[in-house]
Write a structure and sequence with these properties.
Blueprint: E1 5-9, H1 23-27, E2 32-38, E3 43-48, H2 53-66, E4 72-76, H3 84-96, E5 101-105, H4 110-116, E6 122-126, H5 130-133, H6 139-151, E7 155-162, H7 168-181, E8 187-191, H8 204-215, E9 221-223, H9 227-230
The protein binds iron/sulfur cluster.
Iron/sulfur cluster (SF4) binds next to loops.
Amino acid sequence: MGVRQVFVRFAGCNLSCDYCDTPASGFDHPESCAVQIAPGERRFKELPNPLDVPTTLAAIINIELESPGHHSVSLTGGEPLMQAPFLAELCPELRKSDLRAYLESNGTLVDALSDALPHIDIVAMDFKLESATGIKPATEMHREFLAAAVAAGKDVFVKAIVTSSTAEEEIEECAAVIALAGRRIPLIIQPVTSTNANVQSPFAAQIMRLQVAASRILDDVRVIPQCHKMLGLI
Ligand code: SF4
């Protein structure tokens, strides 16, 4: 938190969370792709989709040159692992340019993770809670996903979006699954920013109860709001 990243947002997702803030990229395959030309100023140029790896790499490097010092390149979505072969081609090129690959995933595509994992530096896995997503939990897939990332020696953390409907039992179950892979894996509890009637932000006391409950199981549980929304970066 507090460092800059280059965001590469992949179209397409295998889930449909109630709180999704990127349904345009999550569910559609747009004809063009907006590439930022002035960091932070929301000025873009449009390129035809799909972008190939050299074009994507050139856009990333250009942003780094314009505004040096990015922590990493966030490969996000949608669900980037739906395009694992593209990642396997792009990520080694990032390393050659001294940029780190930070995978942000919904933690459900375990086979695709195996293909991309050798080329990824940091794995940020979303743990999908039913109270927030409104869809069936993917607990076993999350367990396998984390086990694979830890076994590969990656820098790993987990994020769980919580809402006014999230109960302590649900976050305890989440924490217990994470602990199977390692109780030192950080868990970020992220209060949702309400975007529709199905998704309400939790109250402060509730957030604290969730943190206390998870902290009985894990060593490092933090509460971090959706900063990109606070800063108007989306
Ligand atoms: S996994 Fe992410 S991109 Fe996909 S529907 Fe859920 S919030 Fe949206």
